[in-house]
Design brief:
By secondary structure, the chain is of the alpha/beta class. Strands 3-2-1-4-5-7-6 form a seven-stranded mixed sheet, with helices on both faces. α5 links the parallel β4 and β5. Helix content is 35%, strand content 23%.
């Protein structure tokens, strides 16, 4: 809804809509990814992320959460499958040594699966900041990532999972239902679902993790104008099935209409949301 709603989810059936992937990645980086900054900050503060931390970020996108951890002194590794977003993450995390001589040499960006991010010393923190609880089947996708990532972490390492809060406390939930309505001809193509309060605990249990506390964080989605809001939300990929089932213009129109109740007189768009995180520990 990562990020940042969530990272890009291509349609599961039908043709993939034609989009400018580089432009979409840039919209994600410049507009949407920052929406979950309060979540990242709350988690890093709770876990005291610092110079002794070796962090693995699953679904790292264009690397904002990694950059925030690195600024606290952590050695970070990011993993994702979106090449265009990872290119932006590399610009952030792996700067030119002549311009940033103090950049940590052990920061890494990996295109592929968590298994490809193994290091000689085990990770102390694993984060999965892409919130589940908006798409049917998104918990299963997270479980698959954890199956590869957990063995790379040390004993007692923290594994952080994130999810959407109750729909009645997430204004963006009503906007996301537009994607479900328009994608109806493509049944099963990433349909919206209401979050369940035990989603994170069930995923943790499947991964053999022990819950060790949780929290809720308010994340206000704010946009300069309706066009920025439309671009930011579309950069998540959640509206791709709707574009496939209808067309780009129809999705833009209905998305703008759904955003109208949240647009202020000065043109800005504000949608309050609540996200939940779970800290679990490896055996």
């Amino acid at each position: 809804m990562t990020p940042t709603l969530v990272r890009q989810h291509p349609p599961r059936t039908g043709a993939v809509p034609r989009v400018d992937l580089r432009a979409r990645a840039r919209d994600w980086s410049e507009i949407q990814e920052r929406m979950l900054v309060p979540l990242y900050e709350a988690v890093y503060e709770r876990l005291d992320v610092g110079s002794a931390t070796r962090l693995l970020g699953l679904g790292c996108g264009s690397g904002l959460a990694l950059l925030m951890a690195a600024s606290r002194g952590a050695a970070v590794t990011g993993v994702d499958t979106c090449a265009d977003r990872l290119a932006l993450a590399r610009e952030r995390l792996l700067p030119d040594e002549q311009r940033e001589p103090r950049a940590r040499a052990d920061n890494r960006i990996v295109h592929g699966s968590p298994a490809q991010a193994a290091r000689t010393d085990a990770y102390t923190v694993v984060t999965a900041f892409e919130p589940i609880g908006c798409l049917a089947g998104d918990a299963e996708g997270l479980a698959d990532l954890l199956a590869e990532a957990v063995p790379l972490a040390g004993r007692g390492a923290a594994v952080v999972l994130a999810g959407w809060g109750p729909p009645e406390r997430c204004a963006t939930a009503s906007v996301l239902r537009v994607a479900t309505k328009l994608a109806e001809p493509l049944r099963g193509a990433g349909t919206w679902r209401p979050t369940d309060r035990d989603d994170l605990e069930r995923v943790a249990a499947r991964a053999g993790l022990r819950p060790d506390g949780s929290g809720r964080v308010a994340c206000l989605f704010g946009y300069a104008d309706a066009d920025s809001a439309v671009r930011g939300l579309k950069s998540t990929g959640l509206f791709d099935p709707a574009v496939t089932a209808t067309d780009q213009a129809q999705v833009d129109k209905e998305l703008a209409e759904a955003l109208h109740p949240y647009q202020r007189q000065d043109g800005t768009v504000w949608m309050p949301n609540v996200f939940r995180y779970l800290v679990a520990r490896t055996p």
